[in-house]
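Technical note accompanying the year-one report. For the benefit of new consortium partners, we illustrate the data format agreed upon in the data management plan: each record pairs a sequence with a structure-token string. No post-processing was applied to the example shown here.
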Amino acid sequence: MFLNSGNYYGKVCRFDTTGRLAKAFSKVFRLKEVHVTVNELFTGGYTTRNYGNNSISWIQIEMNR
């Protein structure tokens, strides 16, 4: 399994929040840290880029099994 969290390079969600989410995914799904990434394949889709702002955090989650 591979999980990627996208925060549009920190523009729609703080990096520390996205990093904590990545660590939680790693722990809950028992994944190696190399299988849980931030902004690797996808940084954020249309909804994340167009509706995300600093008052509400947005994160795009991509999963590949």
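Partners are asked to follow this layout when depositing records. The chain has a mean pLDDT of 89.
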